[in-house]
Predict the 3D structure of the following.
Amino acid sequence: MERVLIVEDEQLAADKLAMLLEVISPQFKVVGVLGSVSAAVSWMSNNEADLIFLDINLSDDISFNIFEQVVVE
């Protein structure tokens, strides 16, 4: 099972991606859908995902700034 995190501030796009992942493979399990850098930092500080889909421009910052605040291994 691949745990997938979606970081996307447009709900329609996030929903469509989650649906497409489900169609592609039952092995993908969406464990979170987040809409901001701050929410992603908070979530990633306490949880793990195997695969992360990021929208670059989020409502509160650029998504790459997540990785300045959280260590991902």
